[in-house]
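Weekly structure sync - notes
Attendees: PM, LS, DV (DV joined late)
Agenda: review two folding runs queued last week.

Item 1: First target. Sequence and structure tokens pasted below for the record.
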Amino acid sequence: MDIKYVQTTCPYCGTGCTLNLVVKDGKVVGTAPYHRSPVNEGKVCPKGTYAHEFVNREDRLSKPLIKKNGEFVEASWDEAYALIAEKFKGYKPSEMAVLSSARTSNEENYALMKFARGVLKTKHIDHCARLCHASTVAGLAAAFGSGAMTNSIGDIAESKCVFIIGSNTFEQHPLIGRRVMQAKKNGGKLIVFDPRYTPTAKQADLYASFYSGADVAIFNGLMGEIIRNGWEAKDWIAKRCDLERYEELKAKVLEPAYSLENVSKISGISVEDLKTAAEWIGTAESAAVLYSMGITQHTVGVDNVKSTANLQMLCGNIGIPGGGVNALRGQNNVQGACDMGALPVVFTGYQKVTDPAAHKKFEDAWGFPDGICPPENGYEVTIMINVLADNPGELKAMYIMGENPLLSDPDLTHVEKAFANLEFLVVQDIFLTETAELADVVLPATCYAEKNGTQTSTERRVQMWRKAQEPPGEAKVDWQIISEIAAKMGYAAQFPYQSAEDIFNEIAEVTPSYHGMNYERLNKPEALHWPCPDVDHPGTPILHCEKCAHPHGKGMFHALEWKPPAEVPDAEYPYILTTGRCIWHWHTGSMTRRSETLDNEVPTGWIEINTEDAKDLGIANKEMVRAITRRGEVEVPAMVTDDIKKGEMFMPFHFKECAANRLTNNALDPGAKIPEFKACAIKVEKIQEAE
């Protein structure tokens, strides 16, 4: 019997925990602690503990599939590649779109971005960051010149005040929650604002529930109170910020509309709790803001993110240990996929596709004989879906790697209509997902345990995956599939890679923030945080220490008005619906629901209803109810609880049989094009009464 331990990085959330895969006779059979990681120090959450259980499932894709007469039949790779190449060559670049993946490696996202722009010549490439943190990238870039988490995970433990809003950190990022508890142990205060009394909220020194969509009003109210009491960081603001912008912000937050009394009416948080929060944040030696999709997934998501930056600049909490704006990324490599340019507006390292110098740089570096896509912004995934649904014939073909929009995107009826209008769909994945079932060609890919590569965590730490076993059947590594399709289409010379390391070396050449990285440097427990501009640079755990990333080096305040969600409760739909995750499952469940231990813990979804609301509706705990919005309806068990604000309801979004996204609103933030998953109007009916 041959047993070995292979160190790798967890494939679930953006924390970037290191663990060992236990390999017995060539197969992954378990996980074991890896104690040298500075991120998780040998600890993992339930998902990490059971991250091996889906790897060798019998329903892993193992051969290419081609749909013939509505049914999938197994095919050879040559047959699949020939069909894909023939079809793709028959479309104009503007008729094709590509979705990359927050679940795959940096190298694979880079390869697909290069394939989209260089082989297909299309400008339409995006991935699921559009659905979770597009507003973070836009909002923090506007404030600081860089759209990423400003501090490190370990740094949170040093904070004297942690303010968590829009994040159930202890369930979604448990090992970051551990750092929050260390901050508390070190004397720091914990403030949690959330519509639900979550496991995170239960650890708070100050908890307040509020109505989804009140965020800008809350931040403006807190900042007004801080300024009225003289707690703002006057010297820091004078040295580090654009003062004209500061005066605009000051005037805005001191308006009567943002008095604590008025903010209390908008948010449902008491004046006393708002005062306490403002004092704790305003007088703390260091304060950290932690947020996730509860802030970003709104039609005002960019404004919400700018508000977090406003508060932290106001209090001088940027560029210091224990401070910062800490956007907690939901998927293991959503940061890396953004860094790799799997977005419609940038190449790697956020180099704009519309910048002639950047466009020429990549055109020259890649050496495509017939050039690359035009220097124009492409469609975001949310816009792709709208175009497919509303303008049939404009987009005709799509190549999707490791994404599952048929469960992850809002208003699924609209998404289904959109995909029905595609002429040709290729899906590359490890399981036959809801999206793969609609494909014309399905390509079997490898999971994290079957390949080498890197992923970039929420704290900008670039970490290694290490191959632990061979893939099932004829499945291939994603970058290899992409390279072989490129070769079939006449571009073998542009994809000469023999290993993931070859691709990473190319990434480092063209990406300033990764320029000093290589596999030798990354093959250490601490890895490296970008920006890392040269091989002697130690990496950058904390951003903006001396100046911000804008050319002038100043932080930019934004004076913002509060706007309600696109859809608010009314007589017909009297409640607010919000959505999120639970500790046992992850996103569309394609991996966790195939992990026996995790699925046994939580086998299906639910809708949380406040006890008083349930009484008014005559609904009992665990009763099946019909949840209805203007976009659709689902039957789902009720969870009657005091742990959610009266007037608000919550559903997890992992479960296809009671899909929360059958109900959610695809209204978009005008800048980031992110949908408003976190607030829409809903009604709930007893099933027997409705029938």
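Item 2: Second target, run right after the first with the same settings.
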Amino acid sequence: MPYVKHPLIKEKSVEARVYQQVLAARVLERGNSLVVAPTALGKTIVALLLSAELLQKHPKKKILFLAPTKPLAVQHQKSFKKFLKIDEEKIELLTGTITPKKRTEIWDNSQIITATPQTIENDLLRGRIDLEEVSLLIFDESHRAVGDYAYVFIAKRYMKQNKKPLILAITASPGSGEEKIQDVCKNLFIKNLEIKKDSDEDVKPYVQEIKTEWIRVNLPEKFLVVKKNLEIFMKEQLISLKRIGFAPKSKYMNMKDLLEIQRQIRRDIPTQARTRPSLFTAASKIAALIKITHANTLLETQGVSSLNDYFERMKTATTKAAKSLLRDEGIGEAIIITKKLNDANVIHPKLLELEKILVQQFKANSDGKVIVFNHYRDSIRHMAKYLKNVKGVKAKRFVGQAAKSHEKGMTQKEQIATIKDLKDGKYNTLLASSVAEEGLDIPAVDLVVFYEPVPSEIRMIQRRGRTGRFGKGRVIVLIAKDTRDEGFYWAARAKEKKMHNTIKVIQKTFNGQKLDSQTTLGKYMAPEERVLVWVDSREGKSSIASILEEKNAMVKVRTLEVGDFMLSDDVIVERKTVEDFLSSMVDGRLFNQLVLLSSNCNSPLLLLEGSIEDLFALRDIHENAIRGALISIATNYRVPIIFTRDINETAQYLITIAKREQLAKDKDIRLRVGRKGLTLAEQQRFIVESFPSIGPTLAKALLGKFGSIKSIVEADEKKLREVEKMGPKKAKKIIDVLRSKWEKD
């Protein structure tokens, strides 16, 4: 077997695959590149080859490898340590669990850094790191680079800070829609698109065959009784909605369509309720329809155990929709039948089929490994309980970190331990949620089972990529006949086909045009036009700091004692989303914050973000109470209110106000508000600004003239007056304050 020979790659450690070396060379030749290739084709090795080459050429530069999760970042760190001839202490990991001070030290002393994007975004916003010294920036699972995900901000900052930037974006699937793929390319400043498929001639020798089977099962007659009751109820709600003027587009009453109808109804209620009182009926109907559609999905695809859990939670719900459902005769009957079936241990035929599949698999290969993917945690729990007593099957639940309703998630430490146990043979079957689809260093398995199809081409490709890495792979998709299982399956197949066609079209565009203009997408303001925005550390965790940076503001994140943003000596801004505004109105926080805001600056401002219609529809608060609060804010507290549509418009307002305050008036921002977390120079200004009649500009002039606070204090009135704009009255006031004997009031 031939191996890669490179001064920085360990001998006989990396198999020499021509397509990987070609991909690496094309990135160096063509610049910022998106590499799309199925799992197991070695996209990480392409990153490794590039990194080795750049480190050899620029040994004083850094490589930054970003991954969505800590376990994946750890995995990449281990790979680089395994293959590269570099001091392992120079290959470091950065995550939010490491203290900021330690992260700064790691950044300064490392050549290769693997990190989570949120950590890098926070450190960039706080000025702890600079991307100018990064010769290669790698984005793993780069299909995430849309919206306000941290990848987008980091890429923009990199392109602004670095004179010779180089980006490598890697993914198994960037999505099926042309708009989504174009967004990823635009957000990561991609100039070159490289695609590798299993069918490519240079790839074929390294690809293992993956056999896919579809096993269809019939729902039991007893399930159909419950299903009939649920469908009767859904049809009734649907007929009512159509009469009012609303109806889902999809034959299967797609949940996305139903949620969009719900949003539309909520938007219409504040402005049309008086002329269309039927909107309140529509709101109730759509809420009930959403709940029972989900219940029907659970019955069809998961079984009565998961459905019974859902009904039990519904019984404890306090919403009007839930209560009205429980009063419906047909739904009541469905709940009773479901409980009886669950008590009788009637299971979905897919679970019986799964048992057969696993028993046969481990009879044929007792050392084999299997992943069973299931979208629902309740089902995973029931599957684990059922398989516990099946001979030869050693199954383990594997879910994400977030807690869901009554069930705890798994910490990253628990996830890593479970993966190790799978490798070591303690378990042979992972019962996994979507967390196992992307990135984690799960060993190659002999068989992947889809307990239900997923209507996403990205998830389908990622699930399938867990098998067939080092030997022939096998995929089994379980489908309940005449259910939405079939719709989801064909939707994913169609999207995957569309994805490949779309990528081909976009690749031709890249090949046909240089697209160098993409590197200058941001037409940034000249340096003298930039404004400074102090952002409270709590707001710094949201995406608004990144958006302000994108709009070329100088952002400094600190803990402010008052407000969320400080734009000048006079203007402090409190930002509230509509939902937060209503919550703070109810619990009383709002008015305490307004008092502090008014008493700490001359021009307080409240930015209220979101739809005005939502302001009167989101919470069960009488509209007169909301109007009264708005009037009180403006008249009693004398705080002007500006309404913004979304976070982007909020950022634009902040920039515009900051320009007006800072550029038009040539003002510095006073630091007497927001005393925590200041630098030494800022603390010195903070103290000098406390002297009578001293603002930020004069404070800086005094410190510039005398060099320290001690020298200012020791200066006489004549010396003080040597400072520009320091008149005799100001100088005398300062001397009086500093030299007069203190007398108790």
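Discussion on item 2: The two ends are 89 Å apart (CA to CA).
Action: LS to circulate a short write-up before next sync.
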